[in-house]
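Same chain as my last thread, 102 residues:
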Amino acid sequence: MGGAKQKEQKNACLSGRRIRLAEALDIPKETVYGLSCVTMIGDREIYIENYMSILEYTDKKLRLRVKGGNLLITGCRICILYFNDTDMQVRGCIDQIQFERR
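reply #2:
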């Protein structure tokens, strides 16, 4: 038990150092942690940064694997305009964005 608690404390300490370093260098936290960043423009367009993979894609649903879970986007006429290994631009009539924790 002691080993697990020590590991947890060490991870918390490292996490705190990363946050302070990111703040000192003015680096976005999503970059430091590899988290996804979702920017929505109205109900018509979404920019997603740092996604891992496309799990499901139809004109009504887009499910992406992201760190810590899945990102589900639902609506109609959903279309991926652009994507590369980490970033994506999606257009359509967006009804909902939901994070599904793994």
